[in-house]
Every structure is written in structure tokens, then in C-alpha cells.
Amino acid sequence: MTRPDKRNALDPAMFAALVEAGAVVAADPSVRAVVLSGEGPDFCAGLDRSSTRRSCTACAPTASPAALLHTVCDGDPARFGGMAARFTRPALPGDALTVQIWRDGSGALFRTLRGDVVVLDRGRLDLT
Q1: The domain at 59-127 falls in which architecture?
Q2: What's the Cα-to-Cα distance from 54 to each of 24, 70, 127, rounded to whole Å?
Q3: Which of 10, 28, 32, 60 is the most buried (most CB within 10 A)?
Q4: Is the pTM of this model over 0.70?
Q5: How far apart are CA 28 and CA 2, in angstroms?
Q6: How far apart are CA 52 and CA 16, in angstroms?
């Protein structure tokens, strides 16, 4: 990780690069271990909230949680029990996203696409 001035905090570009590298590594059965390192004195300060706040605001109308809250929970956050999904490809600020939702008895199943590429898969929303 190469953002020592930000203590290697993850911004959307770095997160996307890590997801992409993870996909490459996962596809190679000869890889047995991965070593991550960070420039400077800090490995990683976590999420760079300042850059993430801007990107989440930019894509909020089409983001999975917003779509699920609006479609399945009728806009009521109190009904939103929990959500899980598997990242499969990166999505960056400004990407047009489509959320496909299938309701079931206790919540909903979903996946999120960027064009025809699935970026979140095996999504599950549980209602309270």
C-alpha cells in the first residue's frame, strides 16, 4: 500500500486495486500465501472516511443498501436487520450500478451489477 501520507488508509482506488489483486490471486491455485505491506511507519489506518464519504454520496441513489432500503423496507430503516454480500469485482465512484432484488419470506436476495458485470453477489438482506 502506497499512501504513507494518509497512513495507507484505504480509499476507493486502493480498495478496488486490492479486490482486483485478490481475484487474480484467488484464480491461481499455486498461490499459498499473500503478504501485504504498507509504505512508511504504518501498515494501514483502515478506511479513509473522507474519500469514502464523497464516493458513497455520489452513488447513493443506486447503491445496494439504498435500493434495498427503498424497495424492500419501504424506506423504513428500522426494518433493515442486516445485510451481507460477496464482492466479486470493483465498483468505483461514478459507476452506474443496477441492483437486482428477489424478495423471500424473511427479507431479500440481491446482486449488484456494473453493466453486465456482477460486482456484489450472493447478497442477503434480513428484515427485523
Answers
A1: Roll (3.10)
A2: 28, 21, 28
A3: 10
A4: no
A5: 24
A6: 12
